[in-house]
Each structure stands twice: as structure tokens, then as C-alpha cells.
Amino acid sequence: MFPKKYSKLIFIFFMGLGMSLIMTLIITYINTGYDELYYKRFFKAWSVSLPVALVATTIVAPIVEKFVDKITK
Question: How far apart are the first and last CA of the chain?
């Protein structure tokens, strides 16, 4: 178990991991199809998309959280 103070970092990590994984799997398949080199192309693309997703989630999550707080009661 992790201390509660790390919950936002853990959220960012798993959200970025999940989103980049799913999106990279689908986009790689759509762009290049499935063949014997699919996994090589996927892991190459994911090595770029995962850090981008982590940074994007770090920036976007707090903004979205504030927005949702404003539009909900």
C-alpha cells in the first residue's frame, strides 16, 4: 500500500500508462496493420507515447479537476 500523499502521482502514472497503451495499440494497428513486426512498431511508438502521456496527464489533470469542480455541485 502507498501513502495517501502519493495518490495524485499514482493516478497520473496509471492514467498515462493506460491511455498511452490503449491508444498506441489501436493507432499502430490502424496505421500499419498487424503482421510479424507489429509488436516491434508498437513498443517503439509506446516508448514515445508513454512519457508524452505522463507529462500531458500531469498538466491536464489538475485543470480538468478544477473545471469539473466548478461545473458540479
Answer: 31
Three cell numbers at 39?
Answer: 509488436
Could you report the per-residue pLDDT of 34-59, keeping only the tens digit for each?
A: 999 999 999 999 999 999 999 999 99
pTM value surpassing 0.70: yes
Give the list of residues 6+ apart from residue 13 with CB closer than 8 angstroms, or none: 54
**Which of the 8 DSSP states describes residue 58?**
H
Residue 23: which residues within 8 A CB-CB, separation 6 or more?
49, 53
Q: Choose among 50, 45, 39: nearest CA to 15.
A: 50
